[in-house]
Amino acid sequence: MDVRLADQIASTLEQLVFSGEFQDGERLDELKLAEQFHVSRTPIREALQVLVTSGMAEQIPRRGVFIRQPGPVELMEMFETMAELEAACGRLAATRMTDQDLASLGDANDRCQQAIQNADHDQYYSENETFHQIIYRGAANSYLEKQALQLQNRLKAYRRIQLRFRGRLKQSMDEHSQILQHLQDGEAERAADVLRSHVAVQGEKFHQLIASINR
Amino acid sequence: MDVRLADQIASTLEQLVFSGEFQDGERLDELKLAEQFHVSRTPIREALQVLVTSGMAEQIPRRGVFIRQPGPVELMEMFETMAELEAACGRLAATRMTDQDLASLGDANDRCQQAIQNADHDQYYSENETFHQIIYRGAANSYLEKQALQLQNRLKAYRRIQLRFRGRLKQSMDEHSQILQHLQDGEAERAADVLRSHVAVQGEKFHQLIASINR
DNA sequence: ATAGCAATCCTTGTATACAATATGATTGAC
DNA sequence: GTCAATCATATTGTATACAAGGATTGCTAT
To answer: What nucleotides of chain D have any atom within 7 angstroms of a protein Cβ?
Structure first.
């Protein structure tokens, strides 16, 4: 419950951008937005500043702000960066997670398994997110955690796509189990390696999909 | 040369925050800033939004924006994250840097050596920055590069501190040479490991210094 | 007909005016 | 004397008015 209209509008716009409501390069007209949100241009402009600063839009002075949807190349780069961030979290988490953290991680993993058995994709994605977030937290580095959470959120919409690939779900679960095992054993490098490829493969699957569409 | 006052002000404020002009928790008074910059509150507010979004300040609705200087704990976390980002860059760069990139890196390293011989600390820090930036670029992932550059910039002011430690400069140079060698050999994991500890040690030195001051 | 120029309109950027809320100070009651 | 409540003031949040820079359209000249 934000108090400032600008904040509410920023969140809403962010959601709209994420959900692909805007085309890449589309100009965000201050007047139109002001009408849509039934406010003046002032809060709109402040919300746009937020989008620009967070990299979701580009501002050209005296011209306006234009939304920037990441293209295939940038998405691949983001997935690769995510993979490295997750690997880093795993490395650190392996020596820092408490027994309680590991128990939570095990629970989250079980709930992932369960979701698959129920063939409940929504639940799977939700629990999968939780699984990874527990690892971010386990790194015991709130700055790194924040970076990881931000990028995870940014990639959320695109991560679902890998679902389409046959057998990916089972493979994903196997990797989860490996990750859990390595973290329990305090095997930092192994945990990092599995996490890295676990995430990187998502980018590759995404790439395959893009390529197959453009064929 | 920004066209918008808000942009100029945002950059200036950013510099002021970096240079420690503001205390942690200090409120940024819109009216005072407006007077100082000889503008109205509007561009000031838009500049403040930028600071808040980039995490340099916190906004409490109806109360104002308060600057957030990272404390020792957060700084350590940032150094640790930087270490992981640099390791990631090194890992990727090891297999992606061109001969030309490697030549540039060697040149930068030579200029670092030279700066040390000249006992020119300013030049050393400038060239050291370049050395690392060439590796970021070498990762051939512009998103990751951007993240690394951002954090490097954020930590700039604090990195200088390690200089105070006897023998650190020579050690640093030795590490640089190792990194260069591993990158030339395409030894991804070794390059990553050396880079990680090369940066992580800065955080540790920083920690030592803080501890010694508070003693 | 097309290219170049000019004028008008549209949009962004900035200033100011107005509204609403939080803070703190003063007054009154217990 | 202290605590609480209310009122005044200061500051943020929003709206509107004004300024200035592009973009588009139409006209003219070649």
So the answer is: 11-17, 21-23
- Tens of pLDDT, residue by residue over B60-85, are 999 999 999 999 999 999 999 999 99
Average pLDDT rounded to a whole number, residues B34-44 = 97
**Quick one: fold of B5-67?**
Arc Repressor Mutant, subunit A (1.10.10)
pTM of the predicted structure, to 2 decimals:
0.92
Nearest CA in chain A to B196: A88
B189 CA to chain A: closest CA distance, Å?
10
Going by DSSP bridges, is the β-strand pair A57-60/A64-67 parallel, antiparallel, or unpaired? antiparallel
- B72-213 CATH: 1.20.120.530
Q: Which helix (H) or strand (E) holds A64?
A: strand A64-67
Domain boundaries, chain A: 5-67, 72-213
Which one of B8, B14, B77 would you mutate to disrupt binding with A, by most A Cβ within 10 Å of its Cβ?
B77
Instruction: Name the region of B66 (left: φ>0; alpha: ψ -120 to 50; beta: rest).
Output: beta
Give the minimum alpha-carbon distance from B93 to chain A in angstroms, rounded to a whole number: 13
